[in-house]
Specification:
It is built from 2 helices and 11 strands. The protein has 197 residues and is of the alpha+beta class. The strands form 2 sheets. Strands 3, 4, 5, 6, 7, 8, 9, 10 and 11 form a 9-stranded antiparallel sheet that branches. It has a two-stranded antiparallel sheet with strand order 1-2.
């Protein structure tokens, strides 16, 4: 991949307000490195989460996905508070020993890439790296996209505006060093568990 360190130029060079100073403090009001303090999402009698939640909430601990001391829990936004560049009304939060170490956001892909990037630059300042990737849509057409990375004190942020085979979904990863290490270890474990022919 080719790194393009100055593509955005001076337009993106400054932090807005307290965006940089706040970069490690919270994500959507969630405190990095702290336990979840959100109310549990409303649960229906049918054994499912209510389709629309009245306030920001987190799914039950018992419903979380687990990998050792790591658990992933979905956080739901009320409709009025959901950014219009989200793919849906929820994000995934990752906890290690009960503390928030990862936040993953699916974006609505190519159509919202500028809005998502604007929000990230406002929060974290100019990207540390901008790199080019070749992607392919469902029809087989190949195209170039730019991906973005921020390396901050105690925090890594990555924005992939589209997936390699779809224009409709992108991803933002916001991780502490501990959270990133845990994710990489989990991915490595999946490869090791693949069965041979």
């Amino acid at each position: 991949m080719k790194y393009l360190r100055s593509l955005l130029g001076t337009l993106l060079s400054a932090c807005v307000g307290l965006a940089c100073a706040d970069s490690q403090g919270n994500v959507f009001g969630l405190e990095i490195g702290k336990p979840a303090t959100l109310p549990v999402c409303q649960y229906t009698a049918a054994g499912k989460y209510a389709g629309v939640q009245p306030s920001l909430c987190i799914e039950r601990e018992v419903d979380s996905e687990r990998f050792g001391n790591y658990s992933a829990r979905r956080i739901h936004f009320p409709v009025a508070e959901t950014p219009n560049w989200f793919y849906n009304d929820s994000i995934v939060s990752g906890y290690i020993d009960g503390k928030l170490e990862n936040v993953y956001v699916n974006t609505s892909g190519y159509s919202s890439k500028d809005q998502a990037l604007e929000a990230l630059v406002k929060k974290y300042g100019k990207p540390t790296d901008i790199f080019e990737q070749e992607a392919q849509n469902e029809a087989g057409a190949r195209y170039k996209v730019f991906n973005y990375k921020w390396v901050l004190p105690g925090l890594y942020v990555e924005f992939w505006p589209v997936q390699s085979t779809s224009l409709d979904v992108g991803i933002i990863r916001i991780e502490t060093p501990v959270g990133k290490e845990k994710r990489m270890g989990y991915l490595k474990s999946l490869v090791q568990k693949e069965r041979s022919l």
